[in-house]
Amino acid sequence: MTAPSSSGTSLVDGLGLTAGSGMVSIVGGGGKTSLLFALGDLLPGRVVLTTTTRIFAAQTQRADRLLSLDEPDWIQGLAGPGGSVLLVGSVAGDRALGVPVELPGQLLSRKDVDWVVVEADGSRMRPVKAPAPHEPVIAPETGHVVVTAGIDALSAPIEQMAHRPERVSRLTGLAAHQTLTPEALGRLLASPAGGCKGVPPGARVHILLNKVETDSQLQLAEVSARAALDGGDVERVLAGRLEPEPTFPWRVWAR
Predict the structure, then answer these.
(1) Structure confidence at residue 8 as a pLDDT band (50, 70, 90)
(2) CA-based angle 218:36:128, to the nearest 5?
(3) Is 48 helix (H, G, I), strand (E, B) or coil?
């Protein structure tokens, strides 16, 4: 059973990030980097943003401050002004490469760091995906996993909208030329072989449905949310928009 949806919820409250510190890992498609930077702006205290995979180098321009492991004094850079800082492994061409998976936990253990937010998956700009065997790359110290997807995943065939469409088809039972149903999207995001693959023991799991702006999209999101919450380990589902500014309020469905 799922509880009735609630509105009037901020992004931080909706994701249950009300503790004073912790690690958030973001996986899936359709909004990971947008959520990474939104949490950098909204979480209290000193926030380190990073990735264990890679992001586009152009996206690093959104960071208040950028550090790279290639810089010999990057550790000293963490002790700079408050707010958020983006730490990447290195910048190679049009990509900013990730950091080793053990590093986010080391960052969280620092007394001058309150939150570590990690983009732990890649989707090649597609709104939905199913992970390969080597994905995602979630640090074991993660306390919150957020699975993201764009509601536009329901607007065209899987082969057009999904990263690794053959895996999405295998998990949903739909052919690549078919379009995801809202129910199939919810089950995919909640599947331990799909959106919830590799979640560390004890981590809280939330789904964020992005690009939800119209009443019709909200109705689709509700169907997906209830399918995701019908069994499994997903604690709550949020629906709203991350760009150009995060929605307020967010619609939330909880177990």
Answers:
(1) low
(2) 50
(3) strand
pLDDT at position 19: 82
Which tokens in the block code for residue 12? Answer: 């931080």
Q: How many domains does the chain have?
A: 1
Beta-strand ranges (E) seen in 89-153 are: 90-92, 95-97, 115-119, 128-129, 144-150
User: Which pTM does this prediction carry?
Assistant: 0.96
- Which of 51, 99, 104, 107 has its CA nearest to residue 79? 107
And the tokens for 71?
């810089």
Phi, psi values for residue 144, rounded to 5°: -135, 130
In a domain, 57, yes or no: no
Q: Where are the beta strands (DSSP E) in the chain?
A: 6-9, 22-28, 47-51, 54-56, 66-68, 84-88, 90-92, 95-97, 115-119, 128-129, 144-150, 162-163, 204-210, 234-239, 250-254
In a domain, 25, yes or no: yes
Please give the span between the terminal C-alpha atoms of the chain, in angstroms, as a whole number: 7
Residue range 63-85, pLDDT digits in tens: 999 999 999 999 999 987 777 99
Tokens of 208: 């964020």
- The answer to whether residue 81 sits within a structural domain is no
Instruction: Write down how long the chain is.
Output: 255
For residue 117, give the nearest of 21, 189, 11, 219 by alpha carbon. Answer: 21
Contact of 207 with 195, CB cutoff 8 Å: yes
In terms of residue numbers, what domain contains 220? 6-45+116-254
State the residue for tokens 């998990």.
171
Residue at 195 is within a domain? yes
Segment 212-241 shows an average pLDDT of 96
Residue 98 has what DSSP assignment?
Answer: P
